[in-house]
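Tutorial, part two.
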Amino acid sequence: MELRHRALQVLCLADPEQKAASALDTHAQAALYSIAEQAPAAPTDAQALPGRPARPALLRHTEVARRSPATLEGRAVLIHAIAHIEFNAINLALDAIWRFGGMPRAYYLDWLRVAAEEAQHFNLLRAHLRSMGHDYGDFPAHQGLWTMCEKTQHDIVARMALVPRTLEARGLDATPLIQRKLRQVGTPDALAAADILDTILREEVGHVAIGNHWYRWLCAREGLEPEPHYATLVQRYEAPRPKPPFNEAARRLAGFSEAELQWLQHG
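Running the prediction step on this input gives:
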């Protein structure tokens, strides 16, 4: 049993339930897996990566309509959007395992843990969505996270910089604002959703911390200064600039330096 090949197999699965279960099962058996130096062969059909269901329909970020969480359907749309992010996050973690070679075993086990926790998040959100009379796939979604994954497929330093510590770190900032709105609504389903987001936020801090750790480790290996190189990568790959307000407490826990927090605030 070899982990990078297994990660690619799970990444190619289209059924969300099967993908989440397989990510959790692989993590549970992590100690049994060897890790190959050579990456497994990529699927000949580029469309196979990542495996995804026929629904939801994928639109551009600007085309996905926003709804008010004051209505039940609006809250279902919101939970669906977060579930889609978590489903994509399973794929991102698996891709980080199979695609990049020459890293310590701890790197692969870190991202396997992330894949399993993202699968748990997806399962929690999907169960909640079903309790509201909907399911994953019922509403359109966007593919922004995977687009950056494709852009950085040949550069592990850029991947660590621009996916976990840029795009996923935005969730650290956005989640408390979403929770506040849900708690203001105050219905049982809204309060239950806010509680689920407590669990997700706590574990996402750890995921961003893993991205920070391996970004800095790679910079040290390659003789790069992490903070100026990050600014270079943001420009090179046209990464979106995070907008305030920032959850500085969560970002500090995730390993951002004071200089980085100042850069976010003032550029």
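The chain has a mean pLDDT of 94. In part three we will examine how such features are distributed along the chain.
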